[in-house]
Amino acid sequence: MDDLLRYAEAVHSAPLRIAAVAHKALIQQAQGRSHAAQTTIADALALAEPRGFFRTFVDLSAPMAALLDRYLQQIDASPLAARITAAIETLPAADAAKPQPDGRATFAVGGAAVPAFVEAPIVEPLTEREMDVLDGLAKRLSNKEIAEELAISPHTIKRHTTSIYGKLGVSGRRQAVRRAMAAGLVLSS
User: Fold this and answer.
1) Radius of gyration of the chain from Cα atoms?
2) In order of start, what are the domains of the chain with their CATH numbers?
């Protein structure tokens, strides 16, 4: 797991770094190291919370739900607990309390019913700069506006958007934003 974390940091991939830390927490929990798991899940949530990257936790199924529930109970009255719960509830399929046609089970995280097994649609992680550009796309900014906000050239923005489209398997701005929202990479615009 440490190798994956080092790789995520080397390629500046926030989603991959969050996934590595979240997996580490699950491993610690499985080893019976509950206190270490709670500390590690707090670290993973601290990485995820600023950008709303909570989809990783949903994708990790019921064991993560149990770990998150314990953590949220510990910080129950905090604003962070409320933000985490609200963010998880807004994820696509988080309202799937009814039985799924394919027979998937659901579990509860902070009061939200979440499918127990969710396919992760993004294979290659986006870089932090690509995430910044994606945030601009979600805000419906033009390439020029994104370039001004990030202090880089519009040509560089175009290269980043082309890379984003390839990684998300889409062909346009709106498709990229919809796909990113479905994957939990950006919040609703």
Assistant:
1) 17
2) 2-115 (no CATH), 128-182 (1.10.10.10)
How many CA atoms are closer than 13 Å to the CA of 147, on its beta-carbon side?
Answer: 13
Three-point CA angle 134, 139, 144, nearest 5°: 75
- Does the predicted TM-score (pTM) go above 0.70? no
Yes or no: say if 132 and 150 are a contact pair by the CB < 8 Å rule.
yes
CA 63 to chain centre: 17
Give the whole-angstrom CA distance, residue 55 versus residue 45: 11
pLDDT tens for each residue of the chain, 189 residues long: 677 778 878 888 888 888 889 888 888 888 888 899 989 998 998 888 887 777 777 777 667 877 887 887 887 767 777 777 776 666 554 333 333 444 444 444 444 444 443 434 465 788 889 999 999 999 999 999 999 999 999 999 999 999 998 888 888 898 888 888 877 777 655
- CA separation (Å) from 67 to 34, 44, 92, 152, 160? 9, 12, 21, 41, 36
